[in-house]
Design brief:
Structural class: mainly alpha
Helix content: 55-70%
Number of strands: 0
Radius of gyration: 17 Å
Strand content: under 5%
Number of domains: 1
Largest sheet: none
Oligomer: single chain
Amino acid sequence: MFLILDVVGKVSEKLDWLCNFTIFHAFDPGKIADGSVNVAPLSFGLAVSAIILFGLATIIFKRKDLPI
């Protein structure tokens, strides 16, 4: 999904705002390798969002009535 948003955002100037919602926008490998970017806030935000999404998925899955 992130790759599709990134490609669509780079194809059209009207849709370039879609690139802001991709993981590729947050983690620029060149800047990380140079050490010119602080990755701690980005990593923290990614970890927090992963924990929240995992918790929501667990709650939704427990509410499902699966006939086994």
